[in-house]
Amino acid sequence: QVQLVESGGGLVQSGGSLRLSCAASGRIDSFSPLGWYRQGAGKQRESVASFITGSSIKYADSVKGRFTMSRDNTNNTVYLQMNSLKPEDTAVYYCKGLTATPGGLASIWGSGTQVTVSS
Asked: By the number of CB atoms within 10 A of the CB, which of 4, 29, 68, 88 ranks highest?
């Protein structure tokens, strides 16, 4: 099995920066990271940044130019650098991945990390 643990969230003022980390452990050989998602209070979970085929990354329009996703394959960690944060970025941020199981491919999620941006 693969476990995902997010960290790096916290309280920051508008215009500030945070760097989120998502560390994968367990059966890494069967794991592929998919990207970062977020869910604000009373809102649906939405994609923030997703790995596309190859090294391409797709960002949500609301974070383009402000957020950057990267990965460190040596440490099995995916990062989300968030700059110029806005109050509307307040949400629980989750990383998502894909893992191989006896029944086929399955999506897995971390437990999330809270990001709060004050105005």
From this structure: 4
Question: Using CA atoms, how far apart are residues 3 and 90, in angstroms rounded to an integer?
Answer: 24
Token code pair at residue 34: 């998919």
Tokens 């990207």 locate to 35
- CA-based nearest residue to 82, from 47, 111, 117, 108: 117
Which residue has tokens 């476990």?
3
Instruction: Give per-residue burial for 10-30: e unless 16+ CB within 10 Å, then b.
Output: eebeeeeebebbbbbeeeeee
Read off the pLDDT of residues 85-111 as tens digits, 9 standing for 90 and up: 999 999 999 999 999 888 888 999 999
